[in-house]
Design brief:
There is one protein chain. The protein has nine helices and 16 strands. By secondary structure, the protein is an alpha+beta fold. Strands 1, 2, 3, 4, 5, 6, 7, 14, 15 and 16 form a ten-stranded mixed beta sheet that branches. Strand 4 (74-76) and strand 5 (85-93) form a beta hairpin. The longest helix is centred in the middle third of the chain and has 25 residues, at 191-215.
Length: 354
């Protein structure tokens, strides 16, 4: 089965094990962690929902109807997969109005449960979360011991912090469209489409740089001019000269090597790192042109992703794996280092990632 992510290298080599994921929604559980407490009062009615087999925007639209407001008055911190069991908070703007009764809403939507409600003085905005906890059941594995060996490596050393296939659209169509837009073949006026294509373009270039560093054995190894991030601090530190001390900080995880989320401004990297990054991204001149034409702001993203609270349990040829990831990171980046998803057969689900 062809996959757009096959364009990028694996950190531990392509997995030998085949298996399945998300055969049932309960095989992919996601619980959102906002990382802050609510004020207890305010204009915004906060609703924690558990949804099964429903996408976030559908639930938002239905909740808006139940609360007597427009869909634009309901917001979220992150979109969640449809073919999964997910828990997340939604905020409804209800200034001067009492908390609505959601009994009928729940009765009419068997795939949605209301777990908690609260009041807050601010609306939720995309990105207003610290991360997500995942519990995945990998089923029908033909080499479960190989997956366990890889889990031990991932737990120690992490995985490539790739943007997942969801970012690139079906068969990578968002990247194809981004190249065509960059080539002035059409104009994009719809704000959501502009956002999808620009995000896909920047994410593709990041993945390319990361994949090239893996291919050349430089994902753990400092280059002169690299931009480093300290845990919890997004301000970059440029490596003026490679030293054993700095390399040790990278090895122990207190400093992280980053790659570019390209913008129209100059790269912060210098010397060998800048040359390396530019040599890779210049292979996609149309995506670069699109990013620069739209005045995107350059950012950095760490090369490696270290799942936290990682646990796993074997049940015959199935494995249940749980871990936490920071916001903006993809569980699929973890799974692709563990196994190859077996091709779907008649009666199996399709992958409904948003």
């Amino acid at each position: 089965m062809s996959n757009v992510m096959d364009n990028f290298n694996w950190l531990y080599g392509k997995p030998g094990c085949q298996g399945r994921i998300k055969v049932l929604p309960e095989h992919f559980v996601v619980k959102e962690n906002l990382g802050f407490d609510f004020a207890g009062s305010g204009e915004h009615f906060m609703v924690k929902v558990r949804k099964t087999g429903e996408n976030t925007k559908y639930v938002v639209n239905e909740l808006a109807k139940a609360c007597g407001v427009k869909s634009r008055d309901v917001s979220w911190a992150g979109l969640k997969d449809r073919h999964a069991v997910t828990e997340q908070w939604l905020s409804v703007h209800l200034p001067g109005k009492p908390d609505p009764d959601l009994t009928q809403f729940v009765a009419e939507h068997p795939g949605v449960e209301v777990l908690e409600t609260a009041r807050h003085d601010k609306k939720l905005r995309p990105g207003d979360l610290v991360g997500n906890w995942f519990q995945l059941r990998l089923t029908d594995l033909d080499m479960p011991q190989d997956v366990i060996t890889r889990l031990e490596q991932v737990n120690l050393h992490g995985v490539p912090n790739y943007f997942g296939e969801q970012r690139f659209g079906h068969n990578g169509n968002n990247v194809v469209k981004a190249r065509s837009w960059g080539n002035d073949e059409f104009r994009v006026r719809d704000k959501s489409k502009r956002s999808f294509y620009l995000s896909a373009a920047r994410s593709w270039l990041f993945n390319m740089v990361l994949s090239a560093r893996i291919e050349q054995g430089k994902v753990h190894t400092l280059l002169a001019g690299d931009s480093l991030q300290q845990d919890g601090d997004e301000r970059g530190q440029i490596v003026e000269s490679v030293s054993a001390e700095l390399q040790q900080q990278v090895d122990d995880g207190s400093m992280a090597i980053t790659a570019p989320m390209m913008g129209d401004n100059a790269l912060p990297t210098t010397a060998d790192a800048e040359a390396f990054e530019m040599a890779v991204v210049e292979q996609e001149p149309l995506l670069l042109k699109l990013i620069r034409d739209n005045r995107m702001r350059h950012e950095r993203r760490t090369l490696l992703l270290k799942p936290l609270q990682m646990e796993w349990q074997q049940d015959g040829n199935d494995l249940t794996v749980s871990f936490s990831l920071p916001a903006g990171c993809f569980a699929t980046a973890v799974v692709r280092e563990l196994m190859i998803e077996r091709e779907l057969e008649d009666g199996d689900h399709a992958n409904f990632d948003q």
